Amino acid sequence: MGKRAVFFVDAAHFVFGAFLGYLWCFARCWIKAPSGRQRFNVVGALNAITYEVITVTNLTYINSESVCQLLRKLVALGLQVPITLVLDNARYQRCALVQSVADALGIEQAPVYFEAACKRLQQAVAQGRLFTPASRPKQGALL
Predict the structure, then answer these.
(1) Confidence band (pLDDT; 50, 70, 90) for 38?
(2) How far apart are CA 64 and CA 94, in angstroms?
(3) CA gap 67, 74 in Å, rounded
(4) Which residues, including other chains, have CB under 8 Å from residue 103's CB and lie 6 or more apart?
(5) Burial per residue of 88-100, b for 16 or more beta-carbon CB atoms within 10 angstroms, e otherwise
(6) Whole-angstrom distance between the N-terminal and C-terminal Cα of the chain?
(7) What mean pLDDT is reported for the chain?
(8) Where are the alpha helices (DSSP H) in the chain?
(9) How many CA atoms lie within 13 Å of 135's alpha carbon, on the beta-carbon side?
(10) DSSP code at position 124
């Protein structure tokens, strides 16, 4: 009772091209690379317990159809527990089409604003509040 499969869903858009940070050398190096206009798009779901990643990829755009494909792949796993998704607030993940497909497949979408939690975590790291001092080891992170 109360068991479910929780997946964190997000997309990444990788640009075909060479991006160098800092390169120090005696001779100037040239790296052949495409123009950078083409992208490799990935929308994926990470299982919160097993860290298994389910992905849908394409070379065009990540849109609501891509997310619906991901939902169908998740259902095809044949899990014996209900599926819950934690999404960010991208429009293509929160649109009516995705919600209707999720409802039809029996997938629950968690009403969590994931980006706000990430922003709070980034602020805590930047301000040095993530790790507790040795005098208070059991209090936990001060988020």
Answers:
(1) confident
(2) 8
(3) 11
(4) none
(5) bebebbeeeebee
(6) 30
(7) 78
(8) 64-76, 91-94, 96-105, 114-126
(9) 0
(10) H
**What would you report as the CA-atom Rg of the chain, rounded to the nearest whole angstrom?**
20
State the Cα–Cα distance between residues 137 and 143, nearest whole angstrom.
15
Domains of the chain with CATH codes: 5-17+32-112 (3.30.420.10), 114-143 (no CATH)
Cite the beta strand spans of 1-143 per DSSP E.
5-15, 39-47, 53-58, 83-86, 107-110
Angle between helix axes 96-105 and 64-76 (nearest 10 degrees) is 10
Pull the structure tokens for residue 58: 């394409």
Burial of 13 (0-12, 13-18, 19+ CB in 10 A): exposed
Determine how many CB atoms are found less than 10 A away from the CB of residue 68: 20
> Is the model's pLDDT at 126 over the cut of 80?
no
Sign of the C-alpha dihedral computed for residues 76, 57, 50 and 10 taken in this order? negative
Asked whether the beta carbons of 3 and 81 are under 8 A apart, the reply is: yes
